[in-house]
Design a protein that fits this description.
By secondary structure, the chain is α/β, with parallel strands linked by helices. The chain contains 12 helices and 13 strands.
């Protein structure tokens, strides 16, 4: 099968899943070629190490507003101009792809819009792998974008409030345009694949569209037990920003009695400095010894996962989450808040503990249990490794993806033959 790929991914889990999908498809004997804009991360797991990747221009940059009206409309035009630029990029990619004899296009997310317009212009069967909709448009993170401005203390007709009201009105209209475009773009695909049942429900809520669960996998050769001594610290893994809920982990560690309270080491591929400073201040106030490791090597990550007593997992509604299974693959149990996709990967009492709700005290108790009972931690870690080998390898994940591709192309051929007969 000849497969075209499109993406605009930053470093992180989405790029990792695409890299392993492409590598696995190549190992299966398929031909793969990729397209992306220059805004896609070319340094983290670069696809050009595996396949030919075409970097197609994406001509957009924020405009500087010189007039009062321009400043008022800037938030709206920043969205609409970016949509137009991405649409032009997608048209060029589609033209190049349509001129080759590909069997299917495998579209991955866009860091700006999640779902772009490329399917509107592609003539072959179209698959979109959606890790999650653009959450900031549909969820309160931390405030819903559709909520009205707070009422002023005095009058709503003060010049300051009227100005803020107009700016908010224009910004909200821009977001409504983005919602409309993403919804129309999503509908243009023949198949939507997602990484968990939680993500399937998120797509249904956001776009009103059906999706099929196609679970991801873990590189069990890269993430493996090193058979080294465990140490009294807890590890967290994920970008250092509010969506990973690092403060939740700090509160949980802070509930553990001081005589056995472990250090918390958090590994991230990027860091939002203002959030990082806030979390560091919280840790200091609670007596938690917190340290961050940013952009360290894969070998160092594996070593930390092998040395830690456990992983703590606290993101807000993470759709899937590689980190818990990567820890499990290293023989490390996980203590996680039972929300999002982690409920589909962590089995309470088998490869970790699931805590019902954001309960720092309950998380602290679970971590304390593993700290005090080394035999339990060892047994659970061994079960975790076996569980990942049984259910979460990339070989299994590629089989699921390949089956979805074959089913879609088969359906397309049947529809085409029916149309030809008519």
């Amino acid at each position: 099968m000849k497969i075209a790929v499109w993406h605009n991914l930053p470093s992180g889990g989405g790029k990792r899943s695409l890299y392993h999908h492409v590598r696995g498809l190549l190992e299966k004997g398929h031909t793969v070629e990729s397209w992306c804009p220059p805004t896609a991360d070319q340094t983290y797991l670069p696809l050009n190490e595996l396949v030919t990747e075409h970097i197609v221009p994406f001509d957009w940059e924020p405009k500087s507003a010189k007039t009062s009206f321009g400043r008022l409309m800037s938030s709206y035009y920043n969205i609409t101009d970016k949509i137009k630029a991405m649409d032009a990029h997608c048209m060029q990619c589609a033209e190049e792809i349509n001129n080759k004899d590909f069997d299917i296009i495998f579209v991955n997310p866009c860091t700006f819009f999640r779902v772009t317009s490329i399917a509107q212009y592609i003539k072959i069967p179209k698959v979109n792998y959606i890790a999650e909709p653009y959450r900031w448009l549909y969820e309160a993170m931390p405030n819903p974008p559709w909520a009205a401005l707070p009422l002023p203390e005095k009058t709503q007709w003060s010049p300051r409030y009227v100005k803020a009201f107009l700016h908010d009105l224009v910004k909200t209209q821009g977001l409504r345009v983005q919602v409309r475009e993403e919804w129309q773009n999503a509908k243009a695909f023949d198949m939507i694949l997602v990484n968990s049942y939680f993500s399937r429900e998120s797509v249904l809520r956001a776009y009103g569209l059906e999706a099929k669960v196609c679970y991801l996998g873990i590189d069990t050769e890269q993430f493996h037990p090193l058979n080294i001594m465990r140490e009294k610290f807890i590890v967290g893994l994920g970008g250092i920003y509010s969506g990973k809920g690092i403060e939740r982990a700090v509160y949980a560690i802070g509930t553990i009695e001081k005589s056995i309270r472990p250090d918390l080491i958090w590994i991230g591929n990027f860091s939002h400095e203002e959030y990082r400073k806030t979390v560091e201040g919280l840790a200091l106030s609670l007596g938690v010894n917190l340290s961050f490791k940013v952009r360290i090597s894969d070998e160092e990550i594996v070593a930390f996962l092998n040395r830690a007593t456990a992983m703590i997992y606290t993101p807000l509604l993470e759709p899937f989450g590689f980190a818990p299974l990567e820890a499990n693959a290293c023989g490390t149990p996980v203590v996680a808040i039972a929300e999002g996709g982690v409920r589909e990967t962590i089995k309470d009492g088998i490869n970790g503990f699931l805590i019902n709700g954001n309960e720092p005290l309950e998380m602290g108790k679970a971590i304390s249990t593993l700290l005090k009972d080394e035999e339990l931690a060892y047994r659970m870690g061994k079960q975790a490794r076996n569980y990942v080998l049984e259910k979460w390898t990339w070989n299994s994940a590629i089989d699921r993806l390949e089956e979805s591709f074959f089913n879609l192309t088969k359906e397309a051929k049947i529809k085409q033959s029916i149309f030809t007969c008519i």
